[in-house]
Amino acid sequence: MKKPTAVIAIGGNSLISAKGKESLEDQHMAVFETTKHIADIIEAGYQVVVTHGNGPQVGFILARSDLAAQQIHRISLVIAVADTQGAIGYEIQQNLDNEMKKRGKTSRTVSLVTQVLVDKDDPGFQEPTKFIGGFYEESELEQIKKDHPTWILKADSNRGYRRVVASPIPKGIVELDAVESMIAAGFNVVTVGGGGIPVVEKDGMLEGVSAVIDKDLATCLLAEKLKSDLLIISTGVPQVSINFGKPNEEKLGTVKAADMEKYLAEGHFPPGSMGPKIEAALNFLKNGGKEVIITDPQNLGTAVKDGKGTHIIN
To answer: What's the CA gap between 297 and 34, in Å, rounded?
Structure first.
């Protein structure tokens, strides 16, 4: 019997537990912990398709490239996205398979470098909204602008300032047929990493473009195309809130899609932070999906089995 499919999106920020915990070793441990909770979902009877964010990691790669620019060629944004697919995908597939072996289960996971088609005329190229890299205090902004005059910096919720880059809307997943074949063969799949490598079509040929696609919107598209039973969006908080960071902050449990749409219209979810997650959830439900769960990595398993996190339903 075919297992139900859960598409799970892991946020790039949720792989970094705190400022100062950003090293490769720290991120490895975060992946190690996250895959334990993904393994709980597999044990609950699901076949999983895992996507991941890469905002902080892409920013770190570009920062390293800038620092080394006097010694070696710079790395382009589109290549940095591809690099993160390989590195983070490797971490997830290895740790997830190791965790399942510890539990005495047979499970195979494979990572796929994935291109995602965007429109070359997408307005996202003119109005950057995607946060990448680390956080900066307001007191650091003057020096950052001197060091990086081409950067565009914006406030990221109440957490500080970050660089933003173009983030076009995903239109198609180039390797979708390969993902479907891997699922049919019984593999858990890591795909559409970092929202996918953004490409445009010119005269029937594909060409990479400088952008970072929002991974939640790309994950929603993937879940729709796969006709997934469940979409899970993992982020840095255990539940979605309205009035976030204010004295009247309210955490949301099980919420109707219509209510969530109203909260979105009221501006509760910033466009560079929780906004795309809510938009992805609502799009999935509008296009045939049954349920979306939003929670942090530690609650992935308990959200599926015991109702933790925020559940959005029609």
So the answer is: 5
Q: Are 153 and 164 in contact (CB under 8 A)?
A: yes
Clarify whether 13 is annotated catalytic: yes
Which residue reads 């490895």 in tokens?
A: 28
Q: Is 12 part of the annotated catalytic residue set? A: yes
Distance between CA 86 and CA 50 in Å, rounded? 13
* Tens-place pLDDT, residues 141-170: 888 888 878 888 888 867 788 888 889 999
Given the residues 193, 277, 299, 309, the one annotated as active site: 277
Identify the active-site residue in 215, 272, 308, 309: 215
Tokens representing residue 285 in the block: 């439900």
Q: Which listed residue (124, 130, 195, 299) is catalytic?
A: 130
To 5 degrees, how large is the angle CA 51–CA 53–CA 59? Answer: 150
| Alpha helix positions (H), the chain | 24-43, 55-67, 77-102, 141-147, 176-184, 215-226, 257-265, 275-286, 300-306
98 is catalytic: no
What's the pLDDT tens digit per position in 240-270? 999 988 899 999 999 999 999 999 999 999 8
- The predicted-structure confidence for 45-80, as pLDDT tens digits, reads as follows 999 999 998 888 888 898 888 888 788 888 888 999
CA–CA gap between residue 314 and residue 108 (Å, rounded) = 33
Q: Tell whether pTM > 0.85.
A: yes
For the question of residue 145 being annotated catalytic, the response is: no
> CA 268, CA 266: separation in Å to the nearest integer?
6
